[in-house]
Amino acid sequence: MARWIIVGVVAFIGFVIVLAPPHLVTDLANESSDRRLVIDRPSGSAWAGQGELSLRLSEHRPPVGLGTFSWRIYPGGFSTVGVDWRLDGRTHRLSGELMLGNEIAVTLEGRMDAEFVNPFLAPYYINISGDFELDDIAAEIANDDIAALSGMLRWSGGDVVYRLSGKTNEVVLDPLIARANETPEGVSIVAKTNDSETAMMQARLDKAGWLHVGISRHFLDSVGQPWRGDAAADAMVVEVSEKIL
Questions:
Q1: Which of 68, 98, 128 is the last residue of a domain?
Q2: Residues 117 and 132 sit within 8 Å (Cβ to Cβ)
C-alpha cells in the first residue's frame, strides 16, 4: 500500500510540474529583466508556451512590440537549463537557443525586414528599407556583461534616410555585411560593403551600458557628403549615444 501511495504522490507531482501555468515563466522573465522585456498574455504551460513579447530599451521610450514569443524548456546538463525559442511576427521570424546556468549563452538566426528594425533606429534619426538575414549570432553573458559576441548580419541594401547637422538626407546604399565581435571596451557590430574592408557604420555597447551608433568618414564620402576634418576613412566621425543598460 505504501508503495502505491508513493507512486501516486510522484505521479501527482509530475502531473503538476508538466501542467505548471506559463505565467511562472513569464513572471520570472519580466521581473528578472526589470520589466525591460515583458511577455504578456501567456498560454500553454511553463515548459512549452507562448506569449506576446515587448521590449523597452529606455525609460524615455515606449515599449516596442516584438511579436509572439514561443519557448520549450528542457534539461541542459548539470546545473543548466536549455530553452528553444522562436519569435514570430508579420515582419520577422527569429529563433535560437538559450542556455541558463552560471553563465548565459544565447544563439540567434533568422530573417527580418526593415519595418521591424526601424523603431529601434528612429531615436537616431535613421530610417531604412530592405531586409536582413542573421547567421549564427551567439552571445555569452557573465556577471551582467556580454563576455563574448560573434556572428554575421547581412542587409540587402536600399534607401536610407538620416539626419545630419539638422538636415534630412536620403541615399541608396549597396548591400552591407556586419560582423559582431567583442573588444576590451565592450561589444560591437561593424558594417562594411561587399567590396571594401573599410567600416561604413558601427553599433557599439560599452561595459557601462551605453549604446553608441556611428557612421564613418567612408560612409559620408560614399554618399557625397565628404567630411571636412582630418580623420581616417574608418573613423566614426558622427556618433550618437544612449544609455540602455
A1: 98
A2: yes
